[in-house]
Amino acid sequence: MTWAGFAAVFVAFFLTHSVPVRPAIKARMVARFGQRGFAVGYSTLSLGLLALLIWVAGHAPYVELWAQMPWHRHAVHLGMFGACLILAFSLGRPNRFSFGGARNQSFDPAHPGIVRVFRHPVLAALAIWAGLHLLPNGNVAHVLLFGVLGGFALLGRGLINRRKRREMGDDVWNDLNSAVANAPLMARPTSWSGFALRLAVGLAVFAALMWLHPDVVGVSAL
What we know:
mainly alpha
């Protein structure tokens, strides 16, 4: 894999991820495929391009910047378990601060769930994933990969906040944000069965990532 091929996949990845922040384009696609069809198709495309991007980074010319240390992988395992839990407790739940979520108009700021801590849980999980994977991957291609994706996740929060604030209006945004900030940090789950299910999903996703890591990335996570 040449640097040009690596760059081409990077460009394709960011072009596809510009769709959700362009309302006109997204509206046309939703009108054609439906909300569920758009969500499934876009998620599949995003995951496929992310897997391809990781693969090409692993086959790009190797230029080492720092050596891997034994503790690097342990740090990644611990952090990725946390990232999987963040995803499990956020996906499919209402979140008026995000472009994602489900049934966002039913979002209750008094019981915001994971949104109490992370207004954009998916971006938080992406930033954790990217930042941690910089540790054991001290070569130019992977530093570019994880550095850019981590920066994309961090900058994306501000971009989405500004757009959602314009859509809601300053008063609604400020009231909603204040209500969420004043909600209990460790609130009792509204459904213990739902809590247990999401915890199990987080564990299952973490186990699946560990198991599939050699096949998808080409390197054992252990």
